[in-house]
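Records of this kind hold a single protein each, on a pair of labelled lines. Below, a sample record shows both lines together.
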Amino acid sequence: MTPEEKSLLERTYKMAEDNNRILQSMRRSARWTSVMRYVYWALIIALSFGAYYFIQPYFNFLTSEFSGSSDGTSSSTSMMQAVQNLIKY
């Protein structure tokens, strides 16, 4: 093997090592991106359920107050009282 060929082979080996390191870094970054995307969506879903759990008593109170009259008409004063009762909680 001539010195030129040996030099070329060594440079090619160093480039292959650098490419391998870069590709591994890209792969690791893609994995972390996938994991973080799943964590992000899991957090959004969990917060949505938590918000629903927190707001549900108020929502149930309002629906029971506004659907309390069987004939479909309710006076504005009873609605105002329902809203005031809601604010008191």
Observations:
- The mean pLDDT is 86.
- The helical segments are 3-66, 76-88.
- The chain has one domain: 3-88.
